[in-house]
Amino acid sequence: MIGLFLFFLGLLLFYNYYWKRRHFPPGPPPLPLIGNLVSIASPRPKYQVFLDWSKQYNGIFTVWLGELPCVAICDYKLMHSALIKDHAEALSGRFQFVEHLNILVEVASLLKRLEEDEKTGICDIIGRFDACIGSVINNLLFGYSFEGSKLNEFLELKQNIQDLFIQTNKPQISLYANFPWLKHFPHFKGHVEKLFHFNKKIFDFLERQIKEHEKNIDFDSETTDVCEAFLKEVRHQEKVQGPHKDNYSYVQLENVCYDLWLAGMETTATTCQFTIIYLLNHPNVLQKVQKELDAVIDNDRLVTMDDKSQLHYLQAVISEVQRTTNLLLFNLFHKALDDIVIDGHLIKKGTIVIPQISCALYDEKVSYLLKLA
Predict the structure, then answer these.
(1) Is residue 301 part of a domain?
(2) What is the pLDDT of residues 240-296, one digit of tens each?
(3) Strand, helix or coil at 91?
(4) What's 7's domain CATH number?
(5) Residues 227, 119: one domain?
(6) Taking the model in full, what pTM does it have?
(7) Fewer CB near the terminus (10 Å): N or C of the chain?
(8) Please, is 372 exposed, middle or buried when counting C-beta atoms within 10 Å of its C-beta (0-12, 13-18, 19+)?
(9) Is position 108 within any domain?
């Protein structure tokens, strides 16, 4: 019995530490089933964990999220080679969306509210930023801002998005993503139920907005938002080709709105929050920004894109904030569409590749030109 146990234990160790890793770049040894999630979930800053691995494995290594192997690229030169110079097509799949937004209208509203807050001596800068960013996104999608009675609607949505992000980053959810059957175990069941609960709350909001648009839409009027444009295109496609559920469906519309809300809200809000925090902790930088704005912008008008070429220091500050702000635990995943070779390592077709941008931004070997103070 002991001999049989030792045989299967040896077989498991052989598979886990050699066989399943043989076609991937070397990296931190994974534990069976949970991979490197213990190291990733440690109290240390996540970017520091990847920086240490990057130094140990020369900028490219395999990290295991449960039983899912992901090739992490943490060196700037390797990242540039993989994504731009040599393998841009093989690691493609990027999404681009260009739309003219009435952002200045929301900025003007934000400034007005901050001036009103200043009179009371207390400014809720973070809350005001959140509402402004949420209004920009919601105006794009559904054509209205979060003002008056609509503000509570935004606060509830914002809380659900925050709770969803917190829940998604928990190790139990990372394991569940690789082993869905874990949701039946008590230690995982509660976390999975919370994940679906917060997700459903967000989709419920989107479904209400779409149904309201569908109820009140005027197909002959000028299009004012994404939801209206999508519904009009559905009507057009039905007239021309008949029902086309594969190309235009309400599920697709909900998911488009969902992606724009989640991708746009938290990243933009967090960047704005860090900007305020950095400037408050570096008043000399704040003074230089204000001095440049006073020299370029006159008559108390709002800053526009036409002023960008003259606001060199402000651009440098924004770039430095974006460099030092670590927004995501993992960068967006890419998938190799063909077999490729990066720094002598064969990356097989179908392999998940993570360009870990935070490591490149904090890389001591990269010479940064932005010297703020």
Answers:
(1) yes
(2) 776 655 667 788 888 889 988 888 888 888 888 899 899 999 999 999 999 999 899
(3) coil
(4) 1.10.630.10
(5) yes
(6) 0.69
(7) N
(8) middle
(9) yes
